[in-house]
Amino acid sequence: TVTQFLQDNENGALRKFYNVIMDNGGEVLTDISNLGEITILAPSNDAWAAKSVENNLGNREKVRSILNMHIIKGKLNVAQIHQKNAKMIAQVPTVNDRTFLYFNIRNENGEDVITVEGGGVNATVLQADVAQTNGYVHIIDKVLGIPYTTVLEKLETDPMMSDTFKLGQFSDFNNQLNNTKRRFTYFVPRDKAWQKTKLDYPSTHKKLFMEDFSYHSRSILERHLVIADKVYTMNDLVAMTAESGDSVLLPTYRDSLKVKVEEEAGRYVITWNFKKINVYRPDVECTNGIIHVIDYPMLEERDVVVNGG
């Protein structure tokens, strides 16, 4: 079984993973035994040696939720990840409450490289499909849930956010996102969100992705970026909306962003300008802020009006 495999690995490639579980009271091992069919993403020994990881190991509650982020109920092998990824990046729930992992497969020199994103960390699968009687173990190169990248580095490396990254490059908007003295809350439209605007407002979309219109793309991105001395998680925003009984105002670069954030059927929904926008991936932590990945940009067709002449 997977449990037995981890116990047998006391001196092997997953020695540190096993030790962290045992140092944390071992309950996670009991949970794993009770789950029946299971998939574990097990960070390699080297992954646990990272400074950012070591600094978090003293906090038991945090470690428990980090460990749970590496556990998936049910069997998930590479063939199934391929199937799930046929149309888009696969989203898979973990046993950590309301935390999902996002699998992506890309081809490098004829080889499939599988990456998995969880809690702001993008890890690569080093060894996949270590099969056990009740599930699979995949060995990964980083510990999920302990962010080590700035908002900018996250945007640059996450396959779901490449269009927003590209738009920010046109106007040097992105440069500020490396500033570690600021705290950013960035509502990032995923690539699929920009594709939807291509259908809704074809000419607006076309202009936005032309360097000549970088002034417009910058002002639209500024609307999505909250700059404050703290970050706003989705739970914070839901609580603030409930408290105000209406929209909340968040400080942005030039102005403020007026939104309502509510929870509907287990999902977060933002209301902006009478539009409802689903939050696809809440609370992606970074070292200098937090990203909420959204399903549609806060965009109106009139945002890119070009005067003749």
Could you give me the name of the CATH homologous superfamily of the largest domain?
FAS1 domain
How do the strands line up in the largest sheet?
Answer: 2-1-7-6-5-4-3
Query: For the report, how would you describe the main beta sheet?
Result: 7 strands, mixed
Can you count the beta strands? 14
- By CATH, the architecture of the largest domain is named Roll
Reported by name, the CATH topology of the largest domain is FAS1 domain
Report strand %.
Answer: 25-35%
Which ranges are low-confidence, i.e. pLDDT below 50, for 5 or more consecutive residues? none
| Bulk shape | globular
Please indicate the count of domains: 2
Mean model confidence by pLDDT:
90
CA(first)-CA(last) distance: 72 Å
Write down the CATH class of the largest domain: Mainly Beta
**So how many helices?**
12
Run of helices and strands:
HHHEHHEHEEEEEHHEHHHEHEEEEE
Radius of gyration: 21 Å
Q: Class by helix and strand content?
A: alpha+beta
Measured as a percent range, the helix fraction is 25-40%
Pfam family, one: Fasciclin
Protein name: Fasciclin-1
Domain FAS1: 1-144, 148-298
Organism: Ceratitis capitata (Mediterranean fruit fly)
